[in-house]
Amino acid sequence: EMIELNQNNFETEVLKDSGYVLVDFYSEDCSPCKALKPFVHSLAIEYEGRLKFGALNVSKAIRLAISQKVIALPVIAIYKAGVKVEELVGADANRESIQEMLEKYAALKE
Fold first, then answer.
1. 50 catalytic, yes or no?
2. 3-state SS assignment for residue 12
3. pLDDT digit string (tens) for 4-45?
């Protein structure tokens, strides 16, 4: 399941989590973000129990997005213990790359 992230729960759900957390940074007016959303949601189901998944609407959390150095969209990032360990930005955030990145971190967890 995808957790809807915001200013109030980002720290608890992402930064204070000791495991791997995938964060989908998106905005309503970002077409590539909309195109990726169903795919990322399907991965959340597939990888349930191995990684936590969250989505942050950056237009509702601009300061938070800036603090996380999110400048271009979409951004699919992996966090571990409060640190962003890898991210895919813009055109690099495609299905193949996201799947590869997820498999890598899911394998590390096991």
1. no
2. helix
3. 999 999 999 999 999 999 999 999 999 999 999 999 999 999
Distance CA 42, CA 30 (A): 19
Whether 39 sits among the annotated catalytic residues: the reply is no
pLDDT tens-place string over residues 44-91 = 999 999 999 999 999 999 999 999 999 899 999 999 999 999 999 999
| Catalytic entry in 33, 40, 43, 44 | 33
Helix axes 31-46, 95-109, angle to 10 degrees: 30
Amino acid at 77: A
**How many Cα atoms sit within 13 Å of 28 on the Cβ side?**
3
- Show the CA angle centred on residue 5, arms to residues 70 and 83, nearest 5°: 55
- Check 14, 21, 22, 30 and give the catalytic one: 30
CA neighbor of 51 nearest in space, from 9, 98, 11, 8: 98
